[in-house]
Amino acid sequence: MLQLFTKELKTMHVAVFQMEVLAGKPDENRERVKTWVEQLCREQLERPLTIVLPELWTTGYQLEDLGELAEEEGVETIAFLQQLARAHRIHMVAGSIATKKDGGIYNTALVIDAQGKLVYTYDKVHLVPMLNEPAYMQGGSVPPALFELDGVKMAVLICYDLRFPELARRLALEGAEVLFIVAEWPLARAMHWKALQQARAIENQFYLLSCNSVGSHNGTDYAGTSMVIDPWGEIIVEGSSTEEEWLQCKVDFSKAAEVRDRVPVFSSRRPDLYR
Ligand SMILES: O=C(O)CCC(=O)C(=O)O
């Protein structure tokens, strides 16, 4: 049964850091995130503010060195983010980082609230054959679930997960109002990146916010084109395909209810014929 949308909180500011990740340099990447957050928070004083980071933003796709670079349970980066979140009173959909646990290496998304609490983690379930990810990492065994920031139901998927519409639909049916996609999506498949994001937003009638990286590593160029897409499928802001930059906007959560009134996809569903 589809749940009702959040009534109390109508709007939230978001800022997406379309970052050029420096592969194999976690200290420098953390420092660059800190500098960005400080600059952003000098300019943006309104709260709630949620910031978004890309996939594997501490290490990049330096997969062959993850044995050394991946963090035990993500402890160092989590502590770093918690401190930053508390200091600036910002929520963080903090992309993903390489973590070591139970003898394996995982691609783990992190969500931290403005009080510095780690509210959600998710280990990427679909590893990317095209980037040889399965040779270096383990896939998570728990499906993505909802988390809440200021009472708004949200979810996060990691990059390749975007290609599996059943994940996004299940999250929408559970009541997700916003879907974040954190990514290092290659330029070679940029057309898919853009079309799939818009499709997920249109078919599920929720906000979709993505954060992709730019730059290149080991011969792979990344596609940038981070986006904020509203529940009608309109692109509100869109990053360039090459430049490190940040995108900012205000999202209005009442919009999804309007869209669902206009095109009542969810009440037209026939779950008796399909799941
Ligand atoms: O699906 C794709 O084309 C890209 C996926 C990817 O790069 C990733 O999951 O890191």
TrEMBL record:
Domain called CN hydrolase: residue spans: 12-253
> Which Pfam family, an example, fits this chain?
CN_hydrolase
What domain of life does the native source organism fall in?
Answer: Bacteria
Q: Please name the InterPro entries in this protein's record.
A: C-N_Hydrolase (IPR003010), C-N_Hydrolase_sf (IPR036526), UPF0012_CS (IPR001110)
Give the transmembrane region(s): none
Family, according to the entry, reads as follows: Belongs to the carbon-nitrogen hydrolase superfamily. NIT1/NIT2 family.
Q: What is this protein called?
A: Methylthioribose recycling protein
Protein's gene: mtnU
